[in-house]
């Protein structure tokens, strides 16, 4: 069974709230595009996000017809034992340099607004 788009829809509503706040602070009345940084291991499905964006953005005067641009941020893990970083998706929690499990995700699970372009 396919997964529902509810997760992405909730994120889109949060993005639109952030856009509204920033637009108000900067005197924007219309947005042309919103660039979002999407972490490689964020659990967000990009095409679900863009589908939900189109549906929700077109219901708002500020974001109607605005484009959602997605920049994928690679997932990187840091190893406390050898102090090196590595690609999370390829190696998971075990450091490929020293075999340690004392690792933590440095980046790659975020969903953040990077840029808002007015028109």
Structure, explained:
The protein is α+β, with helices and mostly antiparallel strands and 119 residues long. The protein has three helices and six strands, in the order αβαβββαββ. It has helices at 6-26, 46-57, 88-91, and strands at 31-39, 67-73, 76-79, 85-87, 103-107, 111-118. The strands form two sheets. A three-stranded mixed sheet has the order 2-1-6, covered by helices on one side. It has a three-stranded antiparallel sheet with strand order 4-3-5. The protein is elongated. The relative contact order is 0.24. The model has no long low-confidence stretch (mean pLDDT 95).
**DSSP summary: helix tally:** 3
What spatial form do the alpha-carbon principal axes imply?
elongated
Strand content: 25-35%
Helix coverage percent of residues? Answer: 25-40%
Rg result: 17 Å
Stretches where pLDDT is under 50 for at least 5 consecutive residues are none
Q: H/E series, N to C? A: HEHEEEHEE
Brief summary:
By secondary structure, the protein is an alpha+beta fold. It has three helices and six strands, in the order αβαβββαββ. Helices cover 31% and strands 30% of the residues.
């Amino acid at each position: 069974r396919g997964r529902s788009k509810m997760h992405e829809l909730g994120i889109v509503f949060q993005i639109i709230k952030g856009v509204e706040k920033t637009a108000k602070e900067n005197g924007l009345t219309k947005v042309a595009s919103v660039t979002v940084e999407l972490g490689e291991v964020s659990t967000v499905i990009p095409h679900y996000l863009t589908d939900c964006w189109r549906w929700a953005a077109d219901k708002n005067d500020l974001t109607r017809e605005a484009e959602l641009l997605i920049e994928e941020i690679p997932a990187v893990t840091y190893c406390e034992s050898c102090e090196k970083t590595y690609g999370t998706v390829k190696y998971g929690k075990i450091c490929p340099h020293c075999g340690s499990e004392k690792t933590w995700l440095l980046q790659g699970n975020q969903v953040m607004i990077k840029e808002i372009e007015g028109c």
